Amino acid sequence: MLSRVANSLYWAGRYIERCDHTARFVNINYFSSLDTPNNMSEKEKLVLESLLFLAGNDYEGEITEKEVLHHIGFDKENPLSILSTARLARTNAHGTRHLISSETWEAINKFYHFVNNYHVDTFVSTGLYDLTTKLNEACSTIREKIIRTLLHDEVWALLMLGIHLERAFQIIRLINTKLLDIKKIEESSGEHHDLTYEWATLLRCAEVYDMSKKFYRRTPNKSQTIEFLLLNAKNPKSLRSNVEKIFSYLNRIGGEREPEPGNIEFEVGKYLSELQYMTMEDIGEDPTDFILSTFDRLNQVGGKFEEDYLFF
């Protein structure tokens, strides 16, 4: 397989997953803020800043609801907007049409045209719930088509590798964003709050609220939420579970290649071993340093994969 084709498959997977997480976060964080018990979270500015922070944007315009939603949703100049991400997913998939199933291509193509044809004025006024909900459904359909209609070979593995690496990134972004929100809430009021609602919102953004309640049999708190999203082996959205998947797809892509010091298989296998034996005591009461170091570690994984397999 040509390295440019492998690159397109890998990035198509990443952009699909990125669009899914952005749409869900905008939906849940926006609408949850309308019912939050914390006074600071009710303020529009905090919600909009949270949306921008998750998307990684250094937005310089006026922080108004319509402008921020336009920037995150349909700004063609913003490479992280939902529209830009959907377009990049389709562009990368288009170059691999001869390798993927017609069902997968049609799902990706339909997904892009739905976003591209959605009226931006409708989105920023009354269409936020409609667009983001349908986008989440479309991304789920694409992943289902990838799993059900492709041969489970290196093409499938490259798409799935992109999906799970991006998912690991997005889980870390979710945690980092919520930690910043909570810090702003406490600094603004100068009081200690019951943050159960904030942790529940974080879990809903990752689609694991119900399973967290089932696993722990109690309302969410800081320690169990962070543990569930980072280290829990039974949670398919956790950092650990995604690194396990990344390692398995690398083995499929690499074939007979043995993990050796310096190659991507070795580095990810070493990282996975660390996560398998890590506890919340290792992360500490304040997970900020761990979150930042995890960003660096995942960037290293992505960079090393591109170096070993995509850049020749």
How would you describe the overall organization of this protein?
The chain is built from 15 helices and no strands. It starts with a helix and ends with a helix. It is 74% helix and 0% strand. It has one domain (3-310). The mean pLDDT is 90. The longest helix is centred in the middle third of the chain and has 36 residues, at 154-189. The protein is mostly helical and 312 residues long.
Tell me the number of structural domains. Answer: 1
Work out the helicity level: over 70%
Q: Based on DSSP secondary structure assignment, what is the total number of beta strands?
A: 0
**Assembly state of the chains shown:** single chain
Low-confidence stretches: none
Please outline the major beta sheet. none
Secondary structure tally, helices: 15
What's the alpha carbon Rg, rounded to whole Å? 20 Å
Structural class: mainly alpha
N- to C-terminal separation? 12 Å
- Order of H and E elements: HHHHHHHHHHHHHHH
Mean pLDDT: 90
Task: Summarize the model shown.
By secondary structure, the protein is mainly α. The chain has helices at residues 3-33, 39-42, 44-54, 65-73, 82-94, 102-116, 120-149, 154-189, 196-205, 209-216, 222-230, 239-254, 264-276, 280-283, 288-310.
